[in-house]
Design a protein that fits this description.
Blueprint (H helix, E strand, L loop, with lengths): L16 H6 L1 H7 L48 E3 L8 H4 L1 H9 L4 E5 L12 H14 L2 E6 L7 H16 L4 E5 L10 H18 L3 E8 L4 H10 L6 E7 L14 H6 L2 H18 L7 E7 L11 H17 L4 E4 L9 E2 L2 E2 L1 H13 L4 E3 L10 E2 L4 E6 L9 E6 L7 E5 L11 E7 L8 E8 L4 E3 L3 E2 L5 E7 L7 E9 L6 E10 L1
Parallel strand pairs: 1-2, 1-8, 2-3, 3-4, 4-5, 5-6, 6-7, 7-8
Antiparallel strand pairs: 9-10, 11-22, 12-15, 13-14, 14-22, 15-21, 16-20, 16-22, 17-18, 17-19, 17-21
Helix pairs in contact: 5-6, 6-7, 7-8, 8-10, 11-12
Length: 510
């Protein structure tokens, strides 16, 4: 990444934008220092963080398959990253900054770890914990950048953070990235994966509900990703890398990239995402995949020149979110809250902050649904003693989590349901879908969606016989004659009384 004072530095610090403007030569050497870089200041000709074709599996004019907007878009596409460079970071001290982040619907927040002997700037662990408590109070999910392979005390430093975050978040979901752009800091695929295999087992056993992510490359690198997928032990819960499209101030490009290039190069993201899915199939077998997280993205990682060009920012941001959504990306974090191309400036949402707010309301606010990615049940419950629910990571249709449904006696026609404000707009978006994972074994179980209105009238879809150990689509168009929806649920049935477990995910209405 290395664009600004935004994330932990191993050996160097991010350089403020003013220094870039004042000292162009220094910018050439320092503006792109990796967060977890082991390189020292003054290393000649560090690479640009603008994504290139060098890491792609298919280069040149390869065009991936056509894409369509999914029925449900992950709310974690709307995330951002903190700088957290001091004890007086505005995220901690300024209530209005956090309020504006909530106004922009930021659901996942990336925070750096700046403890340890060889990081600059350093902040006390109490400041880290304060930031984490602020994230929790916002109702957002944290994505924590652990110290990476460049830290000689990495396991000690990271374990200290994991234990501290356990106290704050308990069993709530916490994402952990191992390092940040370690490839840019000189750690090749073997060195990074070896360090992962040494450190992550201890952290994973300590974390109460931690999901661990790698390899956090500065751009998509197919060879690096394939090696990591093949050799990481334990296997990552998700994979991540960063995406930037252009150099608008000529830090590395002469002449500087025009706005049209920034927008056109968003099409390369489709190739990166398609390559990653193919890599997962090749390495993991069959159609196996894991969530993709773009933990940093924006148009220029160096000195962005078009931040005040509303036409460009709106067009670029809209296309970026559309590209992420159509590729079913699990999470994406705009870089960043207050620097580079900021989300917030001068006490208000910037052009990009407003654009992201609008995109959220267009894509997420257009209907509703449940992804269970917050680690809870989202208000779902069993309707009688023969059925119980809990959040699970055993299988998932989208993302990492699903709703586990334990049927003590499927023959009793048990059901699960949710009511209240979570389904308040269901009548306005009548196309209802859900995915149900069939149980192992030979027990034949059917499932059907149902909606009950405030007068007690119930309408339901046709029963679907669940295919064992596969995801099954339930679909239903709620009739316009139904009154105000008061309950949404799924009913199960079987001729067999054998206890069974099914999983529910990707419930949506559009």
């Amino acid at each position: 990444m290395g664009k600004m004072p935004g994330v932990p530095m191993y050996g160097t610090s991010r350089i403020p934008l003013q220094i870039f403007k004042a000292v162009a030569v220094i910018a050439l050497f320092l503006a792109t220092t990796a967060i977890s870089s082991a390189a020292t200041i003054g290393t000649p000709n560090p690479p640009s963080q603008v994504s290139t074709e060098s890491g792609e599996h298919r280069k040149g004019n390869y065009v991936p398959p056509p894409l369509h907007m999914p029925s449900q878009v992950s709310p974690f596409l709307f995330g951002t990253g903190l700088e957290l460079t001091s004890t007086t970071d505005p995220f901690i001290t300024n209530d209005s900054v956090r309020a504006l982040m909530q106004q922009a619907h930021m659901t996942i927040i990336r925070m750096p770890i700046r403890i340890g002997a060889n990081t600059s700037p350093q902040i006390p662990i109490e400041t880290e914990m304060d930031a984490a408590r602020k994230i929790r109070a916002m109702g957002a999910v944290p994505l924590v950048i652990l110290r990476g392979p460049a830290d000689p005390n990495v396991q000690q430093d990271d374990l200290q953070m994991v234990n501290g975050l356990n106290e704050i978040f308990g069993h709530k979901l916490v994402f952990y990235e191992f390092g940040n752009e370690s490839d840019l800091g000189g750690f090749d695929k073997v060195a990074y994966t070896d360090k992962w295999n040494t450190v992550i087992p201890t952290l994973k056993s300590a974390a109460l509900n931690g999901k661990f992510i790698g390899p956090v490359n500065f751009q998509y690198n197919d060879d690096y990703l394939r090696y990591f997928l093949q050799n990481a032990n334990p296997r990552a819960d998700a994979v991540s890398w960063h995406e930037y499209t252009c150099d608008t101030s000529g830090v590395y490009t002469n002449p500087p990239d025009p706005a049209s290039t920034c927008i056109a190069k968003l099409d390369r993201w489709n190739i990166h995402f398609n390559d990653a899915h193919i890599a997962m199939h090749d390495v993991l077998g069959g159609t196996s995949e894991m969530p993709i997280i773009i933990s940093e993205y924006n148009y220029d990682p160096h000195i962005p020149a078009f931040n005040n060009d509303s036409q460009f920012i709106n067009a670029w941001t809209s296309k970026a979110i559309e590209t992420l959504a159509k590729n079913n990306i699990f999470a994406a974090l705009q870089h960043s809250v207050l620097s580079l191309t900021p989300l917030i400036s001068n006490g208000q949402l910037t052009i990009q902050g407003t654009a992201l707010k609008s995109e959220y309301e267009k894509l997420i606010g257009r209907g509703g649904g449940f992804s269970f990615e917050n680690g809870g049940t989202d208000g779902w419950q069993g309707d009688n003693a023969q059925v119980s629910v809990q959040n699970s990571t055993t299988v998932a249709r989208d993302g990492i989590h699903s709703l586990q449904v334990d049927l003590a006696n499927p023959n009793s026609k048990p059901s699960i349901s949710v009511s209240g404000s979570a389904i308040a707009n269901l009548n306005r978006f009548p196309h209802l879908t859900a995915q149900v994972y069939g149980p192992a074994g030979t027990t034949a179980i059917t499932a059907q969606l149902f909606v009950q209105d405030s007068l007690g009238l119930v309408v339901s879809s046709k029963p679907v016989t669940l295919t064992a150990q596969s995801w099954n689509l339930l679909s239903f168009n709620v009739p316009p004659t139904l009154g105000k929806a008061s309950k949404l649920g799924i009913k199960f049935a079987s001729t067999d009384q054998t206890a069974s477990t099914v999983y529910v995910d990707a419930v949506s209405w559009i």
